[in-house]
């Protein structure tokens, strides 16, 4: 259930190789790395069963749709099978819902054209949204054909909360994934998120969490 994550800008090639080794050893679902490391992660994880996840429009979500689509295509061609894209938060707050919908739909559509089985997760950055905006963001992600909604980048003012996970699960229903990420550093917090409805955990403290278990 865990996406073993390292998105720090100073992460080195050695750090990514260690991340991949840990993911294989602990049987994590995926590693989540910045786009420039997708190719390296793919090589390290070949035939291991661990997926390669990367981020799109990260961490602000404020790039153009064309830029996000280009990033997504590049990531898939380099070996990513899961894409965590940041929605356009400013457009959501401006109630420009058509633009937000098109943004997500374009990334979903173009990436899935390239390769069967690609998963797209939409990062809402819940700490910046009011309750009605969180609901609307989930509805737009659902309408656009996204596979998951995700709480946070881990680079803003807050991370995942139990209340947000419950709200997101209630909004998207049982058939869409909910990823809790941001501030999940121990087993107790991870279990609380799962019990609230999360089906995936994004964490950089994954090894610590499993060792607690």
UniProtKB/TrEMBL annotation:
Pfam families of this UniProt entry?
Answer: DeoC
Q: In which pathway does it act?
A: Carbohydrate degradation; 2-deoxy-D-ribose 1-phosphate degradation; D-glyceraldehyde 3-phosphate and acetaldehyde from 2-deoxy-alpha-D-ribose 1-phosphate: step 2/2
Record flagged with keyword Lyase: yes
Q: Which family does it belong to?
A: Belongs to the DeoC/FbaB aldolase family. DeoC type 1 subfamily.
The role this protein plays is:
Catalyzes a reversible aldol reaction between acetaldehyde and D-glyceraldehyde 3-phosphate to generate 2-deoxy-D-ribose 5-phosphate.
The parts of the chain that form a coiled coil are none
Gene Ontology terms: biological process = 2-deoxyribose 1-phosphate catabolic process; carbohydrate catabolic process; deoxyribonucleotide catabolic process
Main location (coarse class):
cytoplasm
Q: Where is the active site?
A: 84 (proton donor/acceptor), 150 (schiff-base intermediate with acetaldehyde), 179 (proton donor/acceptor)
Q: Which GO terms describe its cellular component?
A: cytoplasm
Organism source for this protein? Calorimonas adulescens
Q: Looking at the keywords, is Lyase present?
A: yes
Task: Check the record and name the CDD domains matching this protein.
Answer: DeoC
Query: Which SUPFAM superfamilies does the record associate with it?
Result: Aldolase (SSF51569)
What's the name of the protein? Deoxyribose-phosphate aldolase
**UniProt-annotated location(s):** Cytoplasm
Q: What is its EC number?
A: 4.1.2.4
Q: Which Gene3D superfamilies match?
A: Aldolase class I (3.20.20.70)
Q: Reaction catalysed by this chain?
A: 2-deoxy-D-ribose 5-phosphate = D-glyceraldehyde 3-phosphate + acetaldehyde
GO MF, one example? deoxyribose-phosphate aldolase activity
